[in-house]
Design goal:
Structural class of chain A: mainly alpha
Largest sheet of chain A: none
Helix content of chain B: 40-55%
Number of helices of chain A: 18
Structural class of chain B: alpha/beta
Order of helices and strands of chain A: HHHHHHHHHHHHHHHHHH
Radius of gyration of chain B: 34 Å
Distance between the termini of chain A: 78 Å
Number of strands of chain A: 0
Distance between the termini of chain B: 82 Å
Number of helices of chain B: 15
Largest sheet of chain B: 11 strands, mixed
Largest interface: A-B, 53 and 60 residues
Shape of chain B: elongated
Strand content of chain A: under 5%
Oligomer: heterodimer
Shape of chain A: extended
Order of helices and strands of chain B: HHEHEHEEEHEEHEHEHHEEHHHHHH
Helix content of chain A: over 70%
Number of strands of chain B: 11
Strand content of chain B: 5-15%
Chain lengths: ~350, ~475
């Protein structure tokens, strides 16, 4: 016979299981109910406010209803959506009406919300309305645990006063990897051309750069990035210690990718013989992007490179340099001893031919 | 000691003999012990001497075994009860934690990495035209679609090929992965994002490997033609991938789609969908191409190579999850299809757990724990569950367990079956991207409830079938519906 303890254990575990299932079902029912109520409320709010916002773009609206706290998030979301979609003139009218309705108060209030979604919404609306009163709240959000919230606050600060925000944001952008590349690029784009951030870029030491920082720098201050690229190319040309150092090679590859000045093109020529294939690819790209027909001979050895991508990019670069000289391309192809080079040139020529076609099925 | 060694004195009745004792009452050294005058002892028959022959009898074996089993049954029952309780706790914790862990993405960025979408054409292609129309309208900045014809000669395929104006293209094909030979590559004049590979019959994974050889972008996503998807599915997965600094792959769970006119089976499958925490949830993934090529591509001898690769990712690479319901597979319409699918899923899980064990043991403690939990609570669970039910029912029939205990036991098993479905519902409602309308939620809950009661034994049977299979049969069933002709 089984011991009584066993039967008691089965009963207890069964009871606990039942309670947990019922709790889960109750939580589920509550969530679904809350969703249904939220949806119903949202539809009601949008039905009331959307026509008013649309009307304020055409005429002066005088009978704005009182905005309650429970409807604020939905109204702010609607306002943001419209602000995103409209032209500059209409944006100003929308901002004017937002001030009349009292949206700034709710936007600042949302910055303290427990929901990340609401905090982002509050930050975005504060930024679009250029609310200097939200500055402290937004600055406090820069260290928020969610990168999305932190980036939204950073972009809002840039919108309010980019010059004032630049020092703190530049420190965050270049000093740590707090933001993932997608957010880092968005924040850097907000600081593009801002004097104080450009000055900050100039002060940065030019010895500790990594590809991510280089990209940010190139977005914010192309002039300073150009100086830095020059230094990087000089370093690599004169110093053989960097060869086969993957970290440094990636920096060189990023530098070649970000190069936009023809004045530095000559310095990229030696990198067509770099041991790393991804550096050779970027060197071929840079020559194709910035070079002229006289640079074409530099690409010839790359056509029979061992790496597929080097052959492909150098063929594309060659086609770009030679332009519509189809016969020239054909002659280069027939002169190639390497069958891989011939195949690649044929592919690139076919791609170019294909791009000129296009018809409906 | 036998009675012959005893020296009995009938006059002393029940007292010890004073003979053979020293003056202090202690027995003399070496003297035989006297048990005097005990009539009960005297009446006992003399024991027989053991015979010098064999003392083992086969007829006693069943009795001995039965006795051993009867002794071991309570211990086995305790063990199974503990396992049931542990699995229940893991399911509950998994459901709640998954629901609370994942939040919907607040925004999707536009500068996402380009993706090569690989579409192996290995079987049914009736819906290819409609599928392509949808795939070309994806809300994603840059992607290409590689259709790989795995040796099919289908009228529908030819019609689609003509419709989209595919022309032969002189591609410099590089065969980094060994596959069946690729005979031709075509590019659509209508939309240059479309490319078409013709190759010899080699199965789904072979077709995908061939496409990996000529994929242009560093991220690849394998998508079968029978799958439906949301227009932003690629953005959602890629965003999760881009946000994880060391990601090697990102995946989204496959959900079963059941339309308004779906029958009982389809509704039941939709009702029993799980949250994406479970290792046996089928998935659609976005993979880093270079990592995959360096590892030799997808294995061609397993049922679910994508899940296997997700398990075998190198240490430095992490796995991102886009948990929202984004990609949908059609529900099985017949019992036979469902049985095959269930058995295949179990077999694929066991194959992957078997082949992926090295990668798991090389990981951290959480990876090891996950592997152990997966092995015990998912992989071998059908066998444990079947054993537990058998033991409890047999004990009840033998009169060793009260009927109330058996009833509670069965209710507990029923609850454990219901838990993943409840977890799935909870998860979807938390994400606010539920594929279930609010009005349908009670029906779905009731369907899950009924299904757990009715279908559980069947599922257990199919799971056991999958568990006991020995070899992968990719030629017969490849991702089940994809290969069904």
């Amino acid at each position: 016979m089984f011991p009584t303890e066993f039967e008691m254990a089965v009963l207890w575990i069964g009871a606990l299981a039942l309670v947990s299932i019922l709790s889960l079902a109750a939580a589920l029912a509550g969530l679904f109910l809350a969703q249904a109520v939220a949806r119903w409320r949202r539809e009601r709010v949008l039905g009331c406010w959307r026509p008013l916002f649309m009307a304020c773009l055409r005429d002066e609206v005088t009978n704005w209803p009182d905005l309650s706290g429970s409807a604020a998030a939905d109204v702010l979301e609607l306002w943001r959506h419209l602000h995103d979609a409209l032209g500059d003139e209409q944006k100003r009218q929308l901002e004017h009406s937002a001030l009349k309705v009292g949206l700034p108060r709710f936007a600042i209030f949302l910055l303290r919300s427990v929901s990340d979604r609401n905090v982002c919404l509050g930050a975005e609306v504060s930024g679009r309305l250029k609310l200097s009163s939200a500055w402290d709240g937004l600055a406090g959000l820069l260290t928020h645990s969610a990168a999305e919230v932190s980036a939204a606050a950073a972009i809002a600060l840039c919108r309010i006063d980019a010059r004032r925000a630049a020092p703190a944001l530049m420190t965050m952008l270049t000093g740590s990897s707090r933001w993932q590349p997608v957010f880092g690029r968005a924040v850097a784009a907000s600081l593009q051309g801002v004097d104080s951030s450009v000055q900050q870029c100039a002060k940065l030491p030019d010895t500790v750069f990594d590809p991510r920082q280089l990209e940010i720098l190139a977005t914010i201050s192309p002039e300073h990035a150009c100086t830095l690229l020059n230094k990087i190319f000089d370093d690599f040309s004169s110093d053989d210690r960097h060869i086969n150092d993957p970290g440094r090679d990636e920096l060189l590859s990023a530098a070649l990718r970000l190069l936009k000045s023809t004045s530095l093109l000559e310095k990229t020529y030696p990198f067509t013989r770099h041991p790393q294939w991804f550096v050779r690819v970027q060197a071929a790209n840079a020559i194709g992007r910035l070079g002229s027909q006289t640079d074409a001979p530099l690409l010839m050895p790359l056509l029979s490179d061992g790496a597929w991508w080097v052959r492909y990019r150098s063929s594309q670069a060659l086609a770009g340099l030679l332009g519509p000289d189809w016969a020239g391309m054909e002659q280069i192809r027939s002169n190639q001893a390497d069958p891989f080079a011939r195949d690649m040139l044929r592919q690139v020529m076919a791609e170019i031919a294909l791009s000129s076609k296009g018809r409906e099925p | 000691m036998t009675e012959r060694a005893l020296h009995l004195d009938p006059h002393l009745e029940n007292k010890s003999s004073p003979a053979n004792t020293q003056p202090d009452g202690l027995p003399v050294e070496g003297a035989p012990l006297d048990l005097q005058g005990d009539q009960n002892l005297l009446s006992l028959p003399l024991p027989e001497m053991a015979s010098p022959g064999v003392d083992f009898s086969w007829s006693e074996v069943p009795d001995v075994l039965l006795a051993a089993l009867t002794d071991a049954a309570p211990w086995a029952a305790w063990l199974v009860l503990l396992l049931f309780a542990a699995r229940y706790a893991v399911l509950l914790a998994g459901s709640v934690l998954t629901a609370w862990r994942y939040a919907p993405l607040l925004q999707i960025h536009q500068d996402l990495p380009p993706v090569s979408l690989i579409v192996p054409l290995t079987g049914r292609t009736a819906c290819l035209r409609a599928w392509l129309t949808a795939a070309l309208e994806l809300d994603y900045p840059e992607y290409e679609i590689l259709l790989v014809n795995d040796g099919l000669a289908d009228d529908e395929l030819m019609a689609v090929k003509e419709g989209y104006c595919f022309e032969r293209f002189p591609e410099a094909y590089r065969d980094r992965l060994c596959t069946k030979p690729v005979s031709a590559i075509h590019v659509s004049v209508f939309d240059r994002r479309l490319r078409w590979l013709e190759k010899g019959r080699g199965g789904r994974a072979d077709a995908v490997n061939a496409a990996l050889n000529c994929a242009r972008f560093s991220l690849v996503c394998v998508l079968d033609v029978h799958l439906a998807f949301k227009v932003d599915f690629l953005g959602q997965i890629a965003e999760r991938y881009a946000r994880m600094p060391d990601a090697g792959a990102a995946f989204t769970p496959l959900r079963v789609a059941a339309g308004a006119n779906a029958g009982f089976l389809a509704r039941w499958q939709a009702a029993c969908q799980r949250a994406p925490v479970w290792v046996d949830t089928p998935l659609v993934g976005l993979f880093n191409k270079e990592m995959l090529v360096a590892a030799g591509g997808f294995r061609t001898d397993v049922l679910d190579p994508e899940s296997l690769w997700a398990m075998q990712l190198p240490h430095h690479a992490r796995l991102a999850c886009a948990p929202e319901p984004l990609v949908f597979e059609p529900a099985c319409k017949t019992w036979r299809d469902l049985a095959h699918k269930q058995a295949d899923a179990r077999q694929a899980l066991m194959e992957n757990l078997n082949l992926g064990h090295k990668a798991f043991w090389q990981g951290g403690w959480n990876t090891r724990l996950a592997y152990l939990l997966a092995l015990l609570f998912e992989g071998f669970w059908p066998a444990v569950e079947l054993f537990g039910h058998g033991l409890v029912l047999a004990s009840w029939l033998a009169g060793q367990l009260a009927v109330q205990t058996v009833a509670v036991w069965l209710a507990m098993a029923f609850g454990a079956g219901l838990m993943p479905a409840l977890g799935g519902l909870l998860f979807e409602s938390r994400l606010h991207r539920s594929s279930v309308r609010v009005q349908c939620a009670p029906m779905r809950f009731l369907a899950a409830l009924a299904a757990c009661a009715v279908m559980r034994p069947l599922m257990l049977f199919w799971d056991m079938q999958g568990l006991l299979r020995h070899e992968a049969k990719w030629g017969r069933i490849v991702k089940f519906l994809a290969a069904k002709k």
